[in-house]
Design brief:
The complex is a heterodimer of chains A (about 160) and B (about 725).
Chain A: H1 2-25, E1 29-38, E2 47-53, E3 59-66, H2 77-86, E4 94-95, E5 103-111, E6 120-126, E7 132-140, E8 149-151, E9 156-163
Parallel strand pairs in A: 3-4
Antiparallel strand pairs in A: 1-5, 1-9, 2-3, 2-6, 6-7, 8-9
Chain B: H1 5-39, H2 53-63, E1 66-72, E2 78-83, E3 89-94, E4 101-104, H3 110-121, H4 125-154, H5 169-201, E5 210-212, H6 228-232, E6 240-242, E7 252-256, E8 260-265, E9 271-276, H7 279-292, H8 297-326, E10 342-347, H9 354-366, E11 371-375, E12 387-393, H10 407-413, E13 420-428, H11 437-447, E14 452-454, E15 459-462, H12 466-479, H13 488-491, E16 498-505, E17 513-520, E18 531-534, E19 543-546, E20 548-550, E21 553-559, H14 565-571, E22 578-584, E23 597-603, H15 608-616, E24 621-628, H16 635-647, E25 652-657, H17 665-671, H18 673-681, E26 685-690, H19 692-710, H20 714-719, E27 723-727
Parallel strand pairs in B: 10-11, 10-12, 12-13, 13-14, 13-15, 23-24, 23-26, 24-25, 26-27
Antiparallel strand pairs in B: 1-2, 1-6, 2-3, 3-4, 5-9, 6-7, 7-8, 8-9, 16-17, 16-22, 17-21, 18-19, 18-22, 20-21
Helix pairs in contact in B: 1-3, 1-4, 1-8, 3-4, 4-5, 5-7, 5-8, 17-19, 18-19
């Protein structure tokens, strides 16, 4: 009899568990297309990390990582301080490094409630044997910026965002 | 020792870069497997020359929300980067006909990443790249000087591909492989240089090559799959298509082919701009493909083999160098050129003629003669000299060795006060067509000089044979009423004496013959048919024995002669006794390769080398003919022959006993005419070992049979090496 009861409770328990997780995941997000156009620099492909910063300027979430080889991640120093400790799963949001003169287009998901709240989007870049740019591109997460073209300071020529 | 400038450069360059080349070759071996393993992956299900771009775009559009790029790599694998209907960015290989995801893009394996970094920059980043690029250039120079050296020693650039004389194993294969891998190595080195330095030199794409094309400004919206460009270009011809970022009409399609870059209007499909990709880009592209072997298995395999060849070049090169360094070439004179009575001049490319000159000089000094030794290029005036002796080798097809290159000119220019008698000794190998040609030239040039008179005809020494050298020394000393003793050990420096242990021996039989088995104390290379030189204590003359190699031991068959110093010395040896000896290669009498039938003919102790050959045989039909005195003479060999017949390593055995049967080896041959005829017709080989008397008798029969049945004479057979002899 006892086991039976337990079995009856199990679905409820499972439901609660899923609900809990789905709730967390279900923060509504909007997908944006993001184009990164690199300058004509020479050398290896660049690692580019796109992150969401909160109103205090602290890392909130990793949005995309260009570069799959995690042994170089520590080169992207600021972000590494945030990411390196937790090592959250970013497999779904990684792509290849981008070579000089090339471009990359990705789809990134940005939480709706971060829009127009003083949050920022940061593009960090690093190239093997060369420099690291902590804020190659950095802009405020406003509705206006989300369909704009923004010039970069380092390896990035410009980035463009567009709601999907 | 002077060596030619090219050899010197070849060597210096090789020494200075050997370590790096070894690293590059080892990592190269690993890296060659990358293109091979990639190419073997199943990501090319369709032939790309049958598929138009529009077809692939069509199937992808139906499957995914948005296409970002389509790429075609060297393996003809098509990959697409898309945004899925769920809104995720994904990149994977596709089947270009169905748009299906057939696998995630190949990630470089850790071992390849490691090898790549080591190969191109030694983990030293930009500095390492420069070093490797420079080494690559040095390797190119090594290959070029190597080519010149082959050309020189073969006697001209056109003879590079003619047959190479095999004098020494490593040298032979160094040249053979050098010719074979010259082109791949030149390609590897030049592309390597470009890949290392190219990124520092590569100019940006030339703006002159941009062609703006007129197009209708008005957006005339057409379906992408209907674009003329996409409908007419095949997937095989492109490298990459980037799709427009937005619907903005300033956003274009970017298409890259190997030759061109195109911008295509996203609404009407017209080509807006066409950029010809510069020469530098093409060089960079082909350098990469050629250097890495991407996409081409056969070439990647050739690159792999080249890496192995490079390792062998380094190994064999250094082994040749060490061998040469062992030969002493330093000249120590105890008198000056103007004090000396006898002048010895040496011409040598490799330094191997010097030991002869030194041995001669030593012998003369012992006889209280004042001798001066110098190179031919140091030719000068000699105040008190009465005799001039020239020892010279020949380089290539008749050229002067490098330390004799100026001699003929000096001879014309420098007049001698006194009359001199001269002798020329030529050193070389009969295998070369230009055997002793330079020595002949020196002899002739001296002859036309008024102050010089020849005292002996030109004497040629083949293959540094010590005995012919001794013969010459004897002739020369008789002429001068001297008794010169040549110390062989000085001459045969490169073939040092080794020490052997008596592993076993038989009792002496009724023919005063016995078998003795010797185990070398150190590891050494020898083959049945080689010779063992044994010099009994207190004797200057060595005796040569033909050897059988059995279980890495040397087996000799020795007949004790009543007054034979050497055979008595050997006979006195007991098991575990120690003796010195020197193995001499005797390539002419090695067991032939790649033949089906071999006839072995021997009498008496001449059977020895054949015992070894038979024991090592695995696939050849061997017929052994042997002549002995009595049936009892055979006893000491019986166990070997019986075992060989049982193992089928010996096909047939024919014996004749001169005393018991009044029958000789040549009679056996006559009996087996059919076997001899078939062997000769099938390009089989006949080896003869034993007494000279037996050799003549056997050759007479063979000649008769060959002439009658195969229409070839014995001289031709010997020339073709179908008949080989080692008789005494």
């Amino acid at each position: 009899m006892k086991t039976r009861k337990l079995l009856a409770i199990l679905p409820v328990f499972l439901f609660l568990l899923t609900a809990l997780f789905s709730f967390k995941k279900n923060t509504p997000t909007t997908a944006y297309k993001c184009l990164i156009q690199m300058k004509n620099y020479s050398g290896e492909g660049a690692y580019v990390v796109i992150s969401l910063l909160n109103e205090k300027g602290a890392y909130e979430e990793t949005l995309f990582v260009q570069g799959t080889d995690d042994e170089w991640y520590f080169d992207i120093r600021e972000w590494w301080d945030f990411y390196g400790k937790k090592r959250s799963d970013i497999d779904a949001i990684t792509g290849a490094t981008i070579s000089g003169g090339a471009r990359a287009i990705n789809s990134i998901a940005i939480p709706n409630d971060a829009l127009n709240k003083g949050y920022k989007i940061r593009f960090e870049t690093a190239v093997e044997d060369q420099t690291y740019y902590k804020d190659d591109v950095e802009f405020e997460l406003t509705s206006e910026n989300m369909s704009a073209k923004i010039e970069g300071k380092g390896f990035i020529r410009y980035i463009r965002m567009m709601p999907q | 020792m002077t060596i030619s400038i090219w050899r010197y450069s070849h060597l210096t360059l090789a020494i200075s870069s050997a370590l790096f080349i070894t690293i590059a070759a080892l990592t190269g071996i690993i890296l060659a497997f990358e293109p091979i393993s990639n190419k073997l992956k199943p990501y090319a299900p369709e032939a790309l020359n049958t598929i138009y771009i529009a077809e692939t775009i069509g199937v992808l559009q139906a499957k995914y929300k948005e296409i970002v790029t389509i790429e075609v790599d060297e393996n003809e694998f098509v990959s697409a980067s898309v945004i899925t209907k769920k809104g995720e960015s994904k990149t994977f290989y596709i089947n270009p006909k169905t748009g299906e995801n057939i696998g995630s893009t190949i990630e470089k394996l850790g071992v390849f990443k490691f090898a790549t970094t080591l190969h191109r920059s030694l983990f030293l980043k930009s500095t390492g790249r420069i070093v490797i690029g420079f080494i690559s250039f040095l390797l190119f120079l090594i290959a070029s000087t190597g080519l010149l050296l082959i050309a020189k020693s073969q006697g001209g650039i056109r003879k590079i591909f003619s047959k190479i004389v095999k004098e020494n194993f490593h040298q032979y294969y160094h040249i053979i492989l050098g010719r074979l891998f010259l082109i791949p190595i030149v390609i590897i080195t030049l592309t390597g240089v470009y890949l290392s330095f190219g990124k520092f030199l590569l100019p940006n794409e030339n703006t002159n090559n941009i062609q703006e094309l007129t197009h209708t400004k008005r957006a005339n919206i057409a379906n992408i799959t209907d674009f003329e460009f996409f409908k007419t270009k095949k997937l095989k011809d492109i490298q990459k298509i980037e799709f427009p970022f937005s619907k903005d009409q300033e956003d274009y399609f970017f298409v890259k082919t190997i030759q061109n870059k195109y911008q295509i209007h996203q609404f009407n499909g017209q080509i807006v701009r066409q950029t010809k990709r510069g020469f530098a880009h093409l060089v960079a592209y082909y350098s990469l493909v050629l250097h890495t072997g991407k996409g081409a298995i056969v070439w990647a395999f050739a690159l792999l083999m080249s890496c192995f060849a490079l390792l062998y070049f380094i190994f064999s090169g250094f082994s040749m160098l060490l061998k040469r360094m062992k030969i002493k070439t330093k000249i120590l004179n105890n008198t000056t050129k103007d004090e000396a009575e006898i002048i010895v001049l040496v011409g040598s490319e490799t330094g191997s003629t010097f030991p002869f000159a030194q041995a001669f000089e030593k012998a003369l000094s012992m006889a209280n003669k004042k001798v001066f030794v110098a190179t031919l290029n140091e030719y000068s005036t000699y105040e008190k000299a009465k005799n001039l002796v020239v020892f010279t080798a020949t380089y290539g097809a008749g050229e002067a060795p490098s330390n004799a290159s100026k001699f003929l000119k000096l001879l014309e220019r420098i007049p001698q006060k006194n009359e001199l008698k001269y002798t020329v000794v030529g050193f070389g190998s009969k295998k070369y067509p230009g055997f002793c040609t330079f020595a002949v030239l020196v002899h002739a040039s001296l002859q036309i000089q008024q102050k010089y008179t020849p005292e002996m005809p030109l004497f040629k020494i083949d293959n540094q044979k010590i005995n012919s050298f001794k013969n010459w020394v004897n002739e020369w000393s008789t002429l001068h009423d001297l008794n010169l003793k040549i110390d062989e050990k000085n001459v045969l420096e490169k073939n040092k004496e080794a020490s052997f242990n008596v592993a076993n021996r038989t009792k002496i039989n009724i023919d005063s013959t016995f078998l003795i088995s010797l185990k070398p104390d150190t590891k050494m290379q020898f083959t049945s048919g080689d010779l063992l030189a044994i010099t009994p204590n207190g004797d200057n003359n060595s005796r040569l024995y033909s050897i059988a190699k059995i279980d890495n031991k040397i087996l000799l068959s020795v007949k004790k002669h009543e007054f034979g110093g050497c055979s008595s010395y050997l006979n006195a040896l007991r098991k575990n006794d120690c003796l010195p000896g020197r193995v001499q290669q005797n390539e002419n009498f090695h067991f032939p390769k790649k033949v089906k039938d071999v006839l072995l003919i021997a009498n008496g102790t001449g059977i020895a080398p054949f015992l070894g050959m038979i024991q090592e045989n695995n696939a050849v039909n061997i017929h052994l003919f042997w002549g002995g005195r009595t049936i009892e003479s055979f006893a000491i060999y019986r166990e070997y022959i019986v075992a060989a017949l049982k193992n089928k390593t010996l096909t047939s055995f024919h014996a004749a006993y001169s005393k018991d049967q009044k029958k000789y080896v040549q009679d056996l041959l006559e009996d087996q005419t059919a076997l001899i005829v078939s062997t000769l017709k099938e390009e089989g080989v006949v080896l003869i070992c034993g007494s000279l008397k037996m050799q003549f008798a056997a050759e007479k029969i063979l000649h008769k049979i060959a002439l009658k049945e195969v229409n070839i004479n014995i001289e031709e057979l010997k020339e073709k090496k179908q008949i080989r002899t080692d008789c005494y």
